[in-house]
Amino acid sequence: MAIVIVDGQEIEIGDDERLNGIEIARRAGVDVPHYCWHPGLSVVASCRMCLMETGRKDPENGEVSMVPKLVPGCQTPATDGVVFITASEKVLNARAMVEEDLLIDHPIDCPICDKAGECALQDYHFSHGRSERRADVRPFTSRRRPMGETVSLFVDRCVMCTRCVRFTREVTGTHELMITDRGSGEEIDVFPGYPLANKLSGNVVDLCPVGALGDVDFLYQQRVWFMKPHDGVCAGCSRGCSIVIEENQDRVYRLKPRENPAVNQWWMCDEGRYGFHHVHSEKRLTEPRRRVGDEHENIEWSELPGELGERLRSAGRLSALLSPHLTVEEAYLLAGYIRGIDSEAVLALGPIPVEGEDETFPAGFIICAEKCPNRRGVEEVIAHFTGRVTTFDEYLELLENSEIRAAWISGGYKSDWIDEPTAERFAGLDLLVVQDLFDSPLYQRADYQLPGAAFAERQGSYVNHVDRLQSFDWAVRAPGGVHVEGNLYWRLLERPGMYRAEAVMGEVAREIGYFAAAAEPYGPIGLDLKVNLLAV
């Protein structure tokens, strides 16, 4: 066990840990400022903001011999006996000089900069910079040029940390970005004819410590201090990236990746990042309706549980199609409700949207071809109730060749998922309930049309393609007229109180062995159900 001394504190590190000065200082509760260093990228030690004093303690006599010059903490390994000093007068003066140098040629356009409020240059100026500016303030704004369809570069705001360049070389392997010229003329640019167009390009905006790289989709949309962040899980594919959903007044403005070494590290793909706009689409379904003759009329949610329950109980053989966009808790409640009415009801898994093949990047990030967040979770719920998982194709065959008289269909797909010929195969049913986000041929055939919730409006849990369970809370309220699936199923089951996903997950963990480990609290990176299943 190695011992490193940080500002007089002795910090123990494991024999297999490889930490640098910044990381060991964090463990000691000290935040060392930095621009160029990032834990997911190579070390270049170019910004010099993390300079600190270092030395070594002699294990025999306890004397400390210090290195005469300051060293970059990002490039200095924390090994046994190493001493770091992070807040001496010498260190503070060096940081102030770096800040002053960066601000000499930095445009003072914070009032119109998207990064204002979350800018490292702003924050470090107030905490580490000089109290007064010694250079003249020049009234100029930054030059702007597009880097691709998703990112714009504000050239003069750049502090040349090169995080974005290293990202395209080391994480995506696409090499679109480069450094042009030398010295004070250095600039970030794209190679001629090769715009920034990789499938992870939005991450360079997150990586940029200042306002040099702007997200075209978010640019000038909202001030960051007005938005409220919510931890969530991306529903764009079965990878289930940990994300932060940022909203203001129940409108989502931005999705950003949340660090999770077990799932997505520090990144997310552009498809997931920009795939939230359907949440606020004008085409969203927002009114529950029932068929009366050849027309549909609105129905009050208060009338629905009793009326729908009576229709289902008198319908005969029941079935339910459980969407892979439902949470584990919602799938469990719906399956329990249908099986509670008809113990032999057919439960099937909804269509699994697949686009191409899984795509793996050099740093290990994966974009899954399976474009749904919870296939594995819903499969395990169905298998618990029926003993096997009935696929969508098998379900369609059962509709034509069995005694099924009624069906509850949950959708939640953000794009077309069923065509007219497929919808016609439901024509023989006596009762059809469809719950979905958007209109479809099947929705038009429904006896009861129920609007559904989008991913940002739910609370619950998803299980990704490698059996990792992640739970999350809702970020925005559903549009007026929409009942979130979990709330509706809770009411249909006539359970007391309000729907709480964590309470349902506790029940799921007790009833289904696959989820048994979820009975105990787990951290923000989620729970590996496959590993924990072996232990229960």
Task: Explain the overall architecture.
This protein has 536 residues and is α+β, with helices and mostly antiparallel strands. The protein folds into three domains: 2-87, Ubiquitin-like (UB roll) (Roll), CATH 3.10.20.740; 140-280, Alpha-Beta Plaits (2-Layer Sandwich); 289-533, Rossmann fold. It contains 15 helices and 26 strands. The protein has a seven-stranded mixed beta sheet with strand order 16-15-23-22-21-17-18, with helices on both faces. A hairpin with an 8-residue loop joins β12 and β13 (242-248). The radius of gyration is 28 Å and the shape is elongated. The mean pLDDT is 93.
Question: Main traits of this protein?
Answer:
single chain, 536 residues, alpha+beta, Ubiquitin-like (UB roll), Alpha-Beta Plaits, Rossmann fold, seven-stranded mixed beta sheet, six-stranded mixed beta sheet, 15 helices, 21% strand, elongated
